[in-house]
């Protein structure tokens, strides 16, 4: 019964061999591809981050979060409870740490910044850094700035040639950030784009140039005023960095007042029941596919988000010479001239 080799398929049992070939491919590829799906965005430079339980409802990702709790890194003490929110004490001294103590193995190239805070009346027009990372030479590698006077948000990064890459977000929907209510500001930093979210809604996305890598030899500041480097007077609830640019987009703000989120039930792609269930369906498939197909009318989906802004066009060619213009109006009479030398001699 074992006279034929494992890959010798006679014509009469071609379907049987094909099914087993597909099955072996599924068994070998599912753990690998699933591992890519779950781990492709995980950077090994980032440690696991401890979060409150509501974050697992906010973001429906069934895996461990990685990143940095900057309140924990900067040893911010817990303060009062306002509007059912436990606030953090910023103190009066500049909040900075050596970058290598904040990001021991560096920061992933793509990440999300999440900060929940409320501005006070005296500081709603301040210009301040949510985050600022310097290199050892004192140049800014990355920074997130809130400008209350202009009602804008700025993201600054360092390019490959040590040049500054500044992106200013001026969308009017950002004005709500300065109404002295609690808001969640999210920033998604991808390899070629930066997106700003306010209360889990996409406000604006801008295409970016290539950024340089992170140097951990400098210093990192949080919640500091641009004017004097002292902590800005805000009510801060949380300030987090996730090593995944998708978190800012996936956050649903389920912890916000009046927001109710239903848990999304998803299957674990590496679980055995999924593989065995798919195998059962594969082996029970008929040898021929059915010829009848459902001719169902397609439903129109919701309108997508605006696309990314394109790059500037190339300089156009020089235009043709214009037509000859009409004669201009007659000029004014000239000034009376001086007497000539001959005239002076005759008068003598």
UniProtKB/TrEMBL annotation:
Family membership noted in the UniProt record: Belongs to the fibril-associated collagens with interrupted helices (FACIT) family.
Superkingdom, taxonomy of origin: Eukaryota
Source organism phylogeny: Eukaryota, Metazoa, Chordata, Craniata, Vertebrata
Role: Involved in mediating cell attachment and inducing integrin-mediated cellular reactions, such as cell spreading and alterations in cell morphology.
Pfam assignment, any one: Collagen
Species whose genome carries this gene: Cyprinus carpio
Protein name in UniProt: Collagen alpha-1(XVI) chain
Record-annotated Thrombospondin-like N-terminal domain positions: 61-245
SMART domains assigned: TSPN
Entry keywords, A to Z: Cell adhesion, Collagen, Extracellular matrix, Glycoprotein, Hydroxylation, Repeat, Secreted, Signal
Biased composition, class Basic and acidic residues, residue ranges: 314-323, 336-348
């Amino acid at each position: 019964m074992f006279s034929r080799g494992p890959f010798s398929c006679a014509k009469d049992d071609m379907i049987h061999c094909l099914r087993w070939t597909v099955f072996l491919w599924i068994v070998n590829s599912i753990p690998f591809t699933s591992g890519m799906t779950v781990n492709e965005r995980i950077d090994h430079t980032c440690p696991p981050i401890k979060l409150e339980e509501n974050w697992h409802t906010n973001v429906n990702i069934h895996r461990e979060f990685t990143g940095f709790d900057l309140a924990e890194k900067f040893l911010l003490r817990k303060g009062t409870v306002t509007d059912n929110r436990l606030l953090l004490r910023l103190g009066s001294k500049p909040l900075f740490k050596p970058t290598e103590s904040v990001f021991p193995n560096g920061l992933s190239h793509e990440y999300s910044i999440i900060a929940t805070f409320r501005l006070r009346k005296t500081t709603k027009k301040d210009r301040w850094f949510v985050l600022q990372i310097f290199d050892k030479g004192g140049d800014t590698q990355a920074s997130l700035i809130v400008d209350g006077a202009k009602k804008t948000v700025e993201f600054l990064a360092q390019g490959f040639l040590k040049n500054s890459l500044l992106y200013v977000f001026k969308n009017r929907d950002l004005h709500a950030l300065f109404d002295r209510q609690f808001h969640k500001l999210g920033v998604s930093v991808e390899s070629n784009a930066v997106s700003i979210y306010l209360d889990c809604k996409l406000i604006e996305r801008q295409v970016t140039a290539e950024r340089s890598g992170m140097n951990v030899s400098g210093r990192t500041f949080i919640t500091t005023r641009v004017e004097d480097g002292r902590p800005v007077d805000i009510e801060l609830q949380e300030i987090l960095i996730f090593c995944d640019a998708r978190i800012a987009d996936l956050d649903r703000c389920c912890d916000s007042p009046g927001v109710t989120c239903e848990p999304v039930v998803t299957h674990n792609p590496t679980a055995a029941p999924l593989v065995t269930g798919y195998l059962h369906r594969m082996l029970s498939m008929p040898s021929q596919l059915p010829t009848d197909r459902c001719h169902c009318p397609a439903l129109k989906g919701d309108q997508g988000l605006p696309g990314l802004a394109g790059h500037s066009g190339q300089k156009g060619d020089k235009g043709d010479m214009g037509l000859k213009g009409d004669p201009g109006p007659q000029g004014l009479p000239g000034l009376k001239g001086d007497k000539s030398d001959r005239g002076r001699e005759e008068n003598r």
